[in-house]
Amino acid sequence: xxNKKYVIALDQGTxxxxxxxxxxxxxxxxxxxxxxxxxxPKPGWxxxxxxxxxxxxxxxxxxxxxxxxxxxxDIAGIGIDNQRETTIVWDPSTGQPxxxxxxxxxxxxxxxxxxxxxxPAIAERIRAKTGLLPDAYFSASKIRWxxxxxxxxxxxxxxxxxxxxxxxxxxxxxxxxxxVHATDPTNACRTMLYNIHENCWDEELLELFGVPASMMPxxxxxxxxxxxxxxxxxxxxxxxxxxxxxxxxxxxxxxxFAPGQAKxxxxxxxxxxxxxxxxxxxxxxxxxxTIAASAPGVGxxxxxxxxxxxxxxxxIQWLRDELGLIRTAAESETLAREVPDTGGVYxxxxxxxxxxxxxxxxxxxxxxxxxxxxxxxxxxxxxxESIAYQVCDLVRAxxxxxxxxxxxxxxxxxxxANDLLMQFQADVSRRTLHRPQNVETTALGAxxxxxxxxxxxxxxxxxxxxxxxxxxxxxxxxxVRAEELLAGWDSAVRRTIA
Length: 498
Ligand code: ADP
Known about the structure:
The protein is of the alpha+beta class. Helices cover 34% and strands 20% of the residues. It is built from 16 helices and 23 strands. Strands 17-18-16-15-21-22-23 form a 7-stranded mixed sheet, sandwiched between helices. A hairpin with a 3-residue loop joins strand 1 (6-12) and strand 2 (16-23). Helix 9 packs across helix 14 and helix 12 crosses helix 13 (419-429).
């Protein structure tokens, strides 16, 4: 057992990088956060400067180390969780990226994906191998774009002179002084180039996307060795021993280690993941199959079903910024409590189409059921409820795919602070919600993965025992009423599909 004082999580998100200090009790002792620039060079394009990601991450780590006067002897290990799919290609001889990172949200390769994967037979092969529905979101077409569009990139890649990585791999490579070029299965499986059943980069898909195998990182277990730190200004010789994509990290941080355990994160969007053990369940409802982060010693690949809501907490931002109905996100709860219900009003925030289980790219938002008596409290409440209805649709789809009920839905993310939303979620989905005291489960997951690998914690039983008592939301609404509301939601959603 490690007798060092802390583990550190590097929580590399889409808009900021954080360094988080976690102690043996699983308490987040401190966190330093540094935002970085979002680049929108053309409509629909999103980029990050990889150097800026790096320096925001290293800067937050350096400040955390300085604040607590940490030496390498104080730090048992470092875990990394990261924005997934975001694609970086760099030259290992100089350490320089060949271009900005193409961010997961970037749509520049939508047409390319259509050209390469439009054939239903190819789409089906991709789904069968990777668990994913072909989309520009995943890394494969982003790598292809860089090789096709950055001058000389393809020749250099084919000569073995360029490396690819999702953000975790890039950070690991830099932090280990260029010694380790590796990622973990939870990140690899979001590239659309990884065979989730055979656990390897898939030759056929690498060929389809024109990606040389020599660019690809080695895939190592999420909780295990990724080398040691060797970078100026960073405490030297600290093991990097946990890596996971943000959503799988939060599943782990919620202690969902067994089949049927699930979590939903209420952020800008919502991400629902259910652990499915050793079964890679293929969805009949347009969910994706993904690899879950495993504790050391599990001995086989563990999987999860994943579904997302595009507009979750973002609907609250819209009520605030575009409609001006509230001044702060938290005020949504106060206003919604002024009315017993929405008076039949539904907001369907299909701003960018509808995700699973509907999957209608051309759907657009609607507000329906408005009467002369509708006021802003009704509208705000309907906005909040729309988050719960969308999650409820995902829960039902996931339960149908998995053939089992989600008995407890573990919740986290910024909007999970809203008690009215959580109670309404429990009511309409007829499921019990557990909200941990620490909703920063993404960083916690990375800390746990690292801490297990380096013997800081003994195993998942010890991690479960660290969890303080949760806030629990039980369904209270009459079941008939819940069904009526859901039927109303269903018909409102259908109106958005022209
Ligand atoms: P992300 O990680 O996606 O940036 P966060 O987990 O920080 O998101 O959550 C922020 C989102 O949660 C925002 O969309 C915000 O509107 C919403 N939010 C924050 N607090 C509340 C609240 N009390 N009620 C409803 N929504 C909230």
